[in-house]
């Protein structure tokens, strides 16, 4: 589950990570009120207005601007709220901005220069360890830094059974070229950040930039946070942070129906029971010359209503040219699934306007094939994997 910047900063601050303070606003009036409050609390006269969407590169699209007075706060908030913000990480249509974060200006003058760093915490699946990735080149596209100057990217592996050791936090601060109070502040920052990552059950914390202020404070100026969906039962307060407006509406509908669904950009829709079989089915479609349009696991209760819901969700994608139903009859018998497909097909009528290939294997597979073949519907039945692949090729041609 992705979070907005202001939500991510709330989680970081709850674990002692120092962040750039800010107040979320849903209209220009709230933005002005938030700016006044920040001025009273921090003394800042300038404010940064940041669009809150689930995408990076907001500044490049005009979604992050500096306001030097309250009139500019109001005008900029009015410009950003309601706009369709296009960034390198959105579609060409962009994402609608519903709120902004009014943040304090932390680039104030002081006894030393400010410095920007990059830092993220994530899981290295190949090694089964957590990893802190960091760089002196903050405030930039980290992908570009990795491509052009890979020697400026550092990694610190952390054994999850032991946790982050003090010497590792010190090594990170040393590699970032810090000394004195800034060094001590970075050690605290790294330790708190890793604690937040583990205890919040996050799958990603990305801070770009981490700022060393002119008076040697270390702050998270931005925060990209992704929480592991499977751990939300432990964090009811985090679950309430979910912003469905930022998510794919088809995936939201599928989740509400109890379907495991991920939208892709192919031309063959998939309806499968079981995640492993679904992955194999996607490979099958690719080998047959197509491309999967989705990942959809209907689970072990593929009755008529569930199948009909799955069909309707798949067909909302106008790129779908065919649908492959691949069911293994273990928990649920194949003939029951076949009857569910026939009933759903009849209920939907003309709504199904693409060829359907149905492969049923397992308990009562032969009976299921007879049900499909004798239904009189435009459904192609198969039992073997290769047979299903051949029929996919056939209908795509």
What does this structure look like?
There is one protein chain. By secondary structure, the protein is an alpha+beta fold. The protein is 37% helix and 24% strand. It has 13 helices and 18 strands. The chain is elongated and about 85 Å long.
Descriptors:
D-amino Acid Aminotransferase, Chain A, domain 1, Dna Ligase, domain 1, Rossmann fold, 3 domains, 13 helices
In short:
The chain is an alpha+beta fold. The chain folds into 3 domains: 1-19 and 110-246, ATP-grasp fold, B domain (D-amino Acid Aminotransferase, Chain A, domain 1), CATH 3.30.470; 21-105, Dna Ligase, domain 1; 248-396, 3-Layer(aba) Sandwich (Rossmann fold), CATH 3.40.50.261. It is 37% helix and 24% strand.
Number of helices: 13
Characterize the overall form. elongated
Uncertain runs: none
Q: Helix proportion of residues, in percent?
A: 25-40%
Instruction: Write down the CATH class of the largest domain.
Output: Alpha Beta
CA gyration radius, whole angstroms:
26 Å
Count the E strands: 18
State which percent range the strand residues make up. Answer: 15-25%
Largest sheet: 6 strands, antiparallel
Task: Name the average pLDDT.
Answer: 91
| CATH architecture identity of the largest domain | 2-Layer Sandwich
CATH fold label of the largest domain: D-amino Acid Aminotransferase, Chain A, domain 1
Write the CATH homologous superfamily of the largest domain. ATP-grasp fold, B domain
Oligomeric composition of the shown chains: single chain
Give the number of domains. 3
Distance between the termini: 39 Å
Q: Return the structural class.
A: alpha+beta
Binding site for Mg(2+): 208, 222
GO molecular function: ATP binding; magnesium ion binding; succinate-CoA ligase (ADP-forming) activity; succinate-CoA ligase (GDP-forming) activity
Protein name: Succinate--CoA ligase [ADP-forming] subunit beta
Subunit structure: Heterotetramer of two alpha and two beta subunits.
